[in-house]
């Protein structure tokens, strides 16, 4: 009886090992088939390819900030909308700084809230070298709903890409959108599937 029980136990263990290996293989296959995801683009507000609205604000240290055609510098500008109460924003701030440095972007932080909280955020995350505007008008102009949100504006004032950004890949997808001319990774994948020669 003991020998039969041990034999059945080994059979069960062998079946479990086979099942786990089969599941691992399927997960690998699914991982290969999943398309890369870029920033989540909302349908409202100005779209990629549109001229950025003309916007004026002041940074937390009192400097004037102007956005839109005729006001942009020689480099593309990444607007990152953040808030002190947003845990994902805290994680994304150092990533945004690294991406801006590696991609040669002008990085501007935009907030909408209590000035003292914004100033504490600047100090806590070492943002004193970056313009930081506390401006609900800029958020409304780009129809920012959830945070963190990124908007990439070309040097000619044209909106290159925008969307909800939670990871480094999302931020980099804004740059890729600017380089490829597609407003999002999803639009690029749709065009590639429609016209394989474009890929």
Number of domains: 2
Question: Residue ranges: pLDDT <50 for 5 or more in a row?
Answer: none
Superfamily at the CATH H level of the largest domain?
Glutaredoxin
Query: How confident overall, as mean pLDDT?
Result: 86
**Helix-strand string:** HEEEHEHEHEEHH
Q: What is the CATH architecture assignment of the largest domain?
A: 3-Layer(aba) Sandwich
Percent of residues in beta strands = 15-25%
The DSSP helix count reads 6
The dominant shape is: elongated
Alpha-carbon distance between the termini?
A: 64 Å
CATH topology of the largest domain: Glutaredoxin
Radius of gyration: 23 Å
Strand order of the largest sheet: 5-4-3-6-7
Outline the biggest β-sheet.
Answer: 5 strands, mixed
How many distinct beta strands? 7
In helices, the fraction of residues equals 40-55%
Structural class call reads: alpha/beta
> What is the CATH class of the largest domain?
Alpha Beta
Structural commentary:
- α2 (87-103) crosses α5 (168-180).
- The protein has 6 helices and 7 strands.
- With 199 residues, it is of the alpha/beta class.
- The chain folds into 2 domains: 1-34; 55-198, Glutaredoxin (3-Layer(aba) Sandwich).
- The strands form 2 sheets. It has a 5-stranded mixed sheet. The protein has a two-stranded antiparallel sheet with strand order 1-2.
């Amino acid at each position: 009886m003991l020998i039969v029980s041990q034999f059945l136990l080994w059979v069960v263990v062998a079946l479990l090992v086979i099942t786990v290996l089969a599941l691992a293989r399927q997960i690998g296959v699914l991982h290969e088939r999943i398309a890369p995801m870029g920033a989540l683009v909302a349908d409202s507000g100005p779209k990629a390819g549109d001229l950025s609205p003309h916007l004026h604000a002041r940074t937390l240290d009192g400097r004037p900030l102007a956005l839109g055609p005729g006001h942009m510098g020689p480099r593309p500008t990444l607007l990152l909308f953040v808030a002190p109460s947003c845990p994902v924003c805290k994680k994304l701030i150092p990533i945004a700084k690294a991406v801006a440095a590696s991609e040669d972007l002008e990085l501007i932080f935009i907030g909408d809230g209590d000035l003292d909280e914004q100033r504490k955020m600047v100090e806590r995350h070492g943002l004193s070298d970056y313009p930081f505007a506390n401006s609900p008008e800029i958020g409304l102009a780009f129809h920012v709903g959830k945070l963190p949100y990124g908007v990439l504006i070309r040097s000619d004032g044209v909106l290159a890409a925008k969307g909800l950004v939670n990871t480094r890949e999302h931020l980099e997808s804004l740059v890729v959108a600017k380089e490829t001319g597609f407003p999002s990774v999803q639009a690029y994948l749709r065009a590639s599937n429609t016209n394989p020669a474009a890929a």
